[in-house]
What we know:
Cofactor: Mg(2+)
Oligomer: single chain
GO molecular function: metal ion binding; terpene synthase activity
EC number: 4.2.3.-
Pfam families: Terpene_syn_C_2
Keywords: Lyase, Magnesium, Metal-binding
Amino acid sequence: MEAIAAAHSHGGAAASSADMAANESSPRLLSQVHKLIIPPIPCSFPWKNHPDYKQLTVMSDAWVLAQFSNMHGAHGRPSSFSADHLINSAFHQVATLAFSNGLSPRMPPIIKMMDWFFMIDNILDDPQEMGADLARADHLVDNVLTVFLGTYQHPSSSPSAPLVSIITECAAEWWAEMCQGMPPKLKARLSKAFCDYLEANRQQVPFRNSRHLPDVETYLKIRADSIGWRPCAVVIEHAQAFELDDEALSHPLLIALHEATVQHITLVNDITSFKKEYMQGDFCNMVFILYFKKLYDSERVEAGRPEPTLQGAVLEVVKMIKERDDECVRLMREIGKCEKLMGKDGMVQYLEGLGLCMSGNLYWHLVSDRYGICATTDIHVTPPDMLAHHHLIINANQEASHIVPCGVMSDASIAPS
């Protein structure tokens, strides 16, 4: 999910503004964008898909057609708001990969949740919709919040705003289904995670309109909520019918693992969605943040050092992803040695679930046509065998081999070394 965060620069942050970025949109910079090479993206966790993938795909497609067929974006344009786009982008696949161990009866509302996630993400990101319109974004967020706060009343109170009504009513449907039999504390945590997600996206609208790029630390802090992964972390438990206790959730090792995981997921999204966002006029992405930080660095200019390149920024993000990947492996091994944590019901399944979130997120970004990468170029003509029992090895661009070492997925043991 690429809910884009934008914030004012802090302290020693890069003071690059979007206006500066716009001025850089020269043919030279555009040429750099089109020539970018995405090298193999590090992820140390094996992937697998849900055994009911085919049946869940049929269910998802039918639900999307029923809910979103009459949904149009600004000026009547279908684009990312059409049912066909949702189906072709295979958003449900993010759920079948991330929750591949989920109990089959619990998967349908999780699939609906993921389809809904991408739809509301499209609306809150799009400058022609609510991405730059605080009043409309407030109206949407306020309506959807009623679902997670338990104050929703059917039908939605926005008959004059079809997008708001559809998004709110769809949320009410899958939320009611998902919460059936859910333990109260788990439901409260999931509700809070969704509320935090919505509030983070609400805050992004004035940030985006401020025309300033954030510093790295601020950006990652905002994206930790706006990327939408924190609700998915709670769903790992729900999907497999266990519940971690407060002692486990508050343990420093697990908190650190959550932070490394969400940053890995965020940075994978940034590096794969960068070109798409640039072409839409959005500059608040880690690739651009690193690029403009160096471009306007006074010490670099005074020393007469060469201008940075977007390819160099891409490689920096890959390095950051590798660091987060290494940190996740290290933390999982540390947790594997902690008897107090490993004695908790569901901990082994939870750690595996975190790895599946990372590998599934990477896999989907590379094979979906949403970002124009399509590692399998004819995926919608001849889909890959999603049930194959092997590790994902995708070289996103063969030309990348001479730029960085080839990183592929390999099993990462959580057992003590």
